[in-house]
Design goal:
4% of the residues lie in helices and 32% in strands. The chain contains 1 helix and 14 strands. Strands 10, 11, 12, 13 and 14 form a 5-stranded antiparallel beta sheet that branches. The protein is flat. The two termini are 36 Å apart.
């Protein structure tokens, strides 16, 4: 399979044409139908692959009022200064170096790094990517073409999303262990 190395970041559907690679006769053996295969033809119908985002948010949680936003520390992504808003640094590319430096006179007592990252739920056969605390409006951004919202409600496959039998609003926060189903269209 190809990689998404040259595909723009996240939320992009790409078409992939593929073929099955054949096998040469193993060294020292005679060619037979069981040990030798030609390459297949390239498929006529491509498969659609949705490329997930290569950018992530980093949540900073201070144990007291000495926060980054209060000027008690600075943050860099690579060599560039970064701005933390509401305890969050958004849109950091995977494998970027993130440096947090305490201002003079301050020090970090403890630093914990926990891998969060996207999680998924499945509603019928639709796999939906989310992060803890996401509203359904945000989930629409993470899942282009899979989830839609109108002025009030959330839709998957053209059908309204229900949580434990109740209509889901676009401002509702996702409930990871909730029972989501699809209702009427």
């Amino acid at each position: 399979m190809p990689t998404a190395k040259l595909v723009p970041d996240g939320g992009v559907d790409v078409l992939v044409w593929y073929y099955i690679k054949g096998a040469d006769t193993p060294e020292g053996q005679e060619a037979t139908a069981e040990n030798t295969f030609n390459d297949s033809e390239i498929c006529t119908e491509p498969i659609t692959v949705t490329v997930l985002s290569n950018k992530f948010d980093i949540q900073f949680k201070a144990a007291n009022a000495n926060t980054i936003e209060a000027g008690k520390a600075t943050v860099k992504v690579g060599d560039e200064a970064a701005e933390v808003k509401e305890g969050k640094l958004t849109g950091v590319k995977m494998n970027s170096k993130v440096t947090v430096t305490a201002k003079e006179g301050y020090k970090f007592r403890k630093v914990e790094v926990k891998k969060g990252g996207p999680k998924t739920i499945t509603i019928e056969d639709v796999v939906i990517v989310y992060e803890d605390g996401d509203t359904w409006e945000k989930i629409v951004d993470r899942n282009p073409g899979k989830v839609e919202c109108d002025s009030m409600y959330v839709f998957v496959k053209g059908r309204v999303v229900l949580l434990n039998g109740n209509l889901v609003s676009k401002t509702d926060v996702i409930v990871p262990d909730g029972t989501y189903t699809l209702g009427f269209s």
